[in-house]
Design brief:
By secondary structure, this protein is of the alpha/beta class. It is about 30% helix and about 20% strand. The chain contains 15 helices and 21 strands. A six-stranded parallel beta sheet has the order 10-9-11-12-8-13. The protein has a six-stranded parallel beta sheet with strand order 16-21-20-17-19-18, sandwiched between helices. Helix 7 links the parallel strand 9 and strand 10.
């Protein structure tokens, strides 16, 4: 794998929690192909003639030093005291593996003069019949020292975060921003921004064919999608389609996934916008807004695309890969349409699913099989139960509040939608707040004061979101914050996707529906007293799921406010009371 911004390519990197980091260069040379060798270069005979290359031990050493230098920029990976103060928290070693030279042949050659014996592993020392303990000792001998300490899982993740930037959704730390003379800037990559080993294994091994990932909120499903999309963009010339349901998530995915050099190949769109694009591209009349309105317009829009695909007016199979985020938001007939758009040569379809976040009015008992809509899920599903996004405190309150309407599915039939119970990854944080106030106006005033306080504590404006349920709430908050000159962006789900600018330094004001798929370090949710059914928006069960989704957008801190007693206020107080 390419390491760091300089894209170094060591053959193997071995990370052991107590022994350290080992860089291995592998050579398939034979003794009779080595023409000349000195401490810096080797002349070898190849099929294309004589070639001079860098000494592999020097090459491995340079890689090891580069990795060490990169990791030392993170203060959390540097020893702060003691004999090794200022050094990396783990030792590192390097060596060369000869796959076609035995130890006996090595010893009898001239190689020992330019290769330290303990830094070489030979062909006969890594056979299937080799004693595992002996081979392990060979690896340990590559390092001349050890610290006697064992890495924590958090430290391991930090090291992986730095070494493999492709395991995070986007570059967040510019290694070139520091000169060698500068003191390293304090930087803490969050566990959220690195795949766990299960996710990494899945992301790297995803081949063609249909794949379904069932994952709880915050389990890293979107990270897998981003990795897969970036990988395909590098290895394939076919167009890639990424779809989701809501506009704001499409904007966030576009920012996360799209490489500026590959805009034409990767298309990120919300589903109904994509349907509109197809009708326009193939000159098919769009529904008349005077004849169809609201949900009827949406239904007719999609139906016209389905009809046109069936009639071959819109060609099927036009995308080398299709990826669908928040697949639980999609009706069966929509999924069937999307499955038809995958090129049969690649048959590459990835669907991310969390039935707990199904919010868009479909009856909970209206089940369908993936097979019935053309999705080949059997034997191709993965389940993610660990929630990395939220602290144990945020997830604990959210799930305790909503667990009555989120009972896990008993069947594990891969051809069905399943509801997975979330488990916390164990990250700790502050207990969520539930603030009772005299009126909604007091709630808005409280939010204004609280966000200013948070910003004074160095939390950027764009890391704060206010997630609301009813239109009057958004309207009141937006007007009052503007008057108070607090930077705020009202993310309107019904407007063009360009209305959401994730990097813009402003608080994000967003509906509960539009918050799906997004995450923010700090989330404030006002108006709890108006839920579940103050305005007849939905059943108490649907509203509970909606509030669960809103609460689980919070990475670190969750603040809720209410101006009256309600069913949800009482349930939240009970959930907070149970939090240990």
């Amino acid at each position: 794998m390419p390491v760091g911004k300089k894209q170094l390519h060591p053959d193997f990197i071995v990370l052991h929690p107590s022994r350290g980091l080992f860089i291995l260069e592998v050579k398939d040379w034979k003794l009779d192909t080595i023409q000349n060798i000195n401490p810096s270069t080797v002349t070898i005979i190849t099929e294309n003639g004589v070639k001079e290359v860098k000494h592999p031990l020097q090459q491995a050493r340079d890689y090891a030093l580069a990795v060490n230098k990169m990791l030392e920029k993170d203060r959390a990976l540097v020893q702060q005291e003691g004999k090794y103060q200022g050094k990396l928290i783990i030792p590192y070693g390097y060596g060369v593996v000869f796959t076609n030279i035995t130890r006996k042949a090595f010893n009898e050659s001239e190689l020992p003069a330019v290769f330290e014996e303990n830094l070489v592993i030979c062909k006969d020392e890594m056979l299937p019949s080799t004693d595992a303990g002996e081979f392990q000792q060979r690896v340990w001998d590559l390092s001349a020292y050890q610290f006697g300490k064992t890495l924590t899982s958090s430290q391991i993740n930090r090291i992986r975060w730095h070494i493999f930037p492709d395991l995070r959704p986007k570059q967040q730390f510019d290694d070139d921003s520091l000169s060698d003379e500068e003191t390293p800037k304090p930087f803490i990559p969050d566990i959220l921004k690195i795949m766990d080993l299960q996710q990494e294994q899945l992301a790297r091994s995803l081949g063609d064919g249909h794949r379904v990932i069932h994952g709880v909120a915050g389990s890293g499903k979107t990270m897998i999608l981003a990795y897969r999309c970036q990988h395909l963009a590098q290895v394939s010339n076919k167009p890639i389609l990424v779809l989701c349901f809501n506009v704001s998530l499409a904007a966030k995915l576009r920012q996360t996934i799209q490489d500026k050099n590959r805009v034409s190949r990767i298309k990120v769109r919300h589903f109904h916008g994509w349907c509109m694009d197809l009708l326009k591209k193939y000159d098919i009349p769009r529904p008349d807004s005077r004849e169809y309105q609201g949900e009827d317009y949406i239904e007719e829009l999609v139906q016209r695309v389905i009809t046109a695909v069936d009639a071959k007016l819109i060609p099927a199979g036009t995308y080398g890969a299709v990826m669908l985020d928040e697949g639980h938001d999609f009706k069966p007939e929509w999924l069937k349409l999307i499955a038809q758009m995958v090129n049969p040569e690649t048959n590459s379809l990835l669907i991310l699913y969390d039935d707990a976040q199904n919010l868009y009015g479909e009856k909970r008992d209206k089940k369908f099989s993936f097979k019935s809509v053309g999705i080949q899920a059997q034997g191709r599903t993965t389940i993610f139960k660990l929630n990395y996004r939220n602290t144990a405190q945020v997830l604990g309150v959210a799930y305790e509040f909503a667990k009555e309407v989120m009972q896990p599915t008993e069947t594990q039939d891969e051809d069905q939608q399943i509801l997975v119970e979330p488990s916390s990854a164990g990250r700790q944080g502050p207990k969520p707040d539930l603030i009772r106030l005299p009126s909604f106006k007091h709630e808005v005033d409280y939010l204004a004061g609280r966000v200013q306080q948070l910003h004074e504590r160095d939390i950027p404006w764009n890391e704060i979101a206010i997630i609301y349920r009813s239109n009057f709430m958004g309207d009141r908050i937006y007007k009052d914050f503007q008057q108070a000159q607090i930077p705020i962006e009202w993310v309107n789900a019904d407007s063009d996707s360009r209305n959401y600018h994730p990097d813009e330094q402003s608080i994000k004001l967003i509906t509960m529906y539009s918050s799906k798929g997004l995450e923010f370090p700090v989330v404030l949710i006002p108006g709890i007293g108006f839920m579940p059914d103050q305005y007849g928006h939905g059943t108490p069960e649907e509203e509970a799921r909606l509030l669960y989704v809103a609460m689980t957008r919070a990475i670190e801190q969750l603040i809720l406010t209410s101006d009256r007693s309600s069913q949800f206020t009482s349930r939240l107080e009970t959930a907070l009371g149970k939090l240990v």
